[in-house]
């Protein structure tokens, strides 16, 4: 116990991606101050470069044995490294789409990129956090940057309102999470996940201790559900998605979900794995409510961002179902679903950004009318994305749902699987509505695609991946299981 | 001698006041910010009480971080409020209804 709080520089390599990213943020932030208007693009390229190097550094750490450093508050394992690579990669893709949006809407500012990098840092800390303190700090770095990112469109009343709603609900959520953490700390006497796991695993716990542990657990689950946007803690999701600038919506609907799932795994699976029976009941209720509400309410939406928000809620329901099963394969299926969801969601929002032009947000479903005549290629891509989200084979979204349902059924929850499938069928209605607008309706106003070549290329690759990965899902599924 | 449960009861009362304030309050957003602070104060009380009675410093360190983050959070919250006042001319909760839901 005596050397628990010593600081050993020889272990710093395990946090190399974070350390590098933090230094890069400082450099980008300072450099941006000295760049004059014509050179503002430099900030963008530097941001991309720092993300690329972070991804490479994290990639090199894949395969290292599990290392716990900083007095047990930071962990390096395969899950952390793989998630970091995915997060850096998807942030880079998001930034390619974002650049087009920012120039069209005159929001191109250096702060935007710094804030994206900062939220990336927060997510990396969350993914690697192994004590309640680091997890909380990572979460706050992420959330505070996201509030600011949404409010970056200073003149738009909708964006400010979205930022305010996200801020208030996010602050309540972290308050609840902290209250749960304080209870867990009080009963187990430690904030380290390892110690909490040992404590929760102890079969000789008195019923009074069990009660307090449960009490804290409920608050932790609520806090995590808030961040994931699961029903009944989903109130912020549609408003924030609709109000925020589309590029920010794209970012906050994709990458932070990996971090939230990672936090879930760290706290509930690693830390409270012994209490699975208690939290899986909560998850089951939330998962079913999310799938049902997400599928039904989305039917009535005319705003495609709002529709995607409800679709996110139902996807989150499926992800939570994976954790209900309580087996490694189920957790793997949930992680696979998250990665697939990010691929699809990124492409869907990329498509909305593609149709944006100066001072015009293409955020109505009707804005997609007649896309097939104007640009058959991108209409086809959008078709693939929508079918994949609805869960039609051979697209990747089908396998994501399939793996989850397989695990749910083999865990013995057949009724739940049936309900999930019924609602998945209902939800295909609104995905197909977009397809109908694209192929069978004529556009009211001229569609012009002003996006630069790099965005078109990356977007096409992104959408094609939905099909290609769908042809070989086994490799990714094995990868997702291997991290547990 | 003040016992641990006294502290916990106090903090849960503060916590509930904070939560109730957020859900009941329908007029002013500044009040929302104050309620969020109340929740954090409750958490801090919990951590310090536990830390003292367990004889373990981790909880007190945690409190320092919570205080710092709370300061940053309020700074951002007030900044968003100023922006809201600029575009809407009011900071009542009622004006934040242009997004349905």
TrEMBL record, chain B:
What cellular component terms from Gene Ontology apply here?
A: NADH dehydrogenase complex
Keywords in alphabetical order, please: Membrane, NAD, Oxidoreductase, Translocase, Transmembrane, Transmembrane helix, Transport, Ubiquinone
Q: Which Pfam families does the record associate with it? A: Oxidored_q2 (PF00420)
Q: Where in the cell is it found?
A: Membrane
Which InterPro entries does this entry report, sorted A to Z? Answer: NADH_UbQ_OxRdtase_chain4L/K, NUOK/Mnh_C1-like
- What does the record give as EC number? 1.6.5.3
Example GO biological process = ATP synthesis coupled electron transport
Q: Which family does it belong to?
A: Belongs to the complex I subunit 4L family.
In its UniProt entry, what is this protein called? NADH-ubiquinone oxidoreductase chain K
Q: What organism is the protein native to?
A: hydrothermal vent metagenome
